[in-house]
Amino acid sequence: MSLLLYFYLVHFLADYTFQSSCLVKYKSEHFFGIVIHSTVHLLTLLAVLAPFLSDSKVWTAIAIIYVTHIIIDQSKTVLNKAYPKLILFFYFLDQAVHLLVVTACGYYVGLLTPKYLTGTALTLYSDQSVVLYLLILVLVTYFYDVTRYFVKKEYKKKPFKRDWRTMGMNAGIVTIAFGLYWVLY
Asked: How far apart are CA 76 and CA 117, in angstroms?
């Protein structure tokens, strides 16, 4: 099985779901905040990819993602300070570069079979529709919420505040759609 969806899921979980507004602020003020944030990525990668950690290519990919995440986020921080009018551009550029790195790592690792899992755990973990559901769930909730904030340029007017109502509605729609898929197919 390909780990590409797992890599994408980890990226969006760590960059959006597991990153608080306090950490975003700390990252913009201190390099150590970027290290903390990148370490959250590292720990999330280790947790999600645990059944594949016996493969050296997975460890190489994890190291590449960790180091490049620090470099990319530090670069974005420096650029945001130097060119504050281009914050929206750097937001999207940051995500594009992260996704290029993650995609390259996914292709580098190639196809693997999870180790140490059997029965239902193996079936559930290997079901790409479950991973896709979780990925889309994060995209339509946390990613959507933060991206809308930047696109509307609300960062110029007010601090970020989660729109839990819209996130819940989006999560409900995706859950119903996948639930129907799983029941009907």
From this structure: 39
At 180, the amino acid letter reads L
Question: Tell me, what's the pLDDT at 171?
Answer: 98
Give the residue ranges of DSSP H helices in 30-143.
Answer: 31-48, 56-82, 87-109, 119-126, 128-138
Q: Degrees (nearest 5) of the Cα angle 122, 66, 106? A: 45
Q: 36 near 73, Cβ under 8 Å?
A: no
Which residues partner with 111 through β-bridges? 2
Asked whether the beta carbons of 10 and 44 are under 8 A apart, the reply is: yes
**Residue whose C-alpha is closest to residue 45's, from 75, 76, 20, 69:** 69
Which regions of the chain are under pLDDT 50? none
- 55, 64, 67, 105, 124 from 60: Cα distances, Å: 9, 6, 11, 9, 26
CA dist., res. 58 & res. 94, Å (int) = 23
One-letter amino acid of 155: Y
Q: CB of 58 within 8 A of CB of 52?
A: yes
How do the domains of the chain map onto residue ranges? Answer: 4-184
| pTM, to two decimals | 0.94
Cα separation, 9 vs 176, whole angstroms: 20
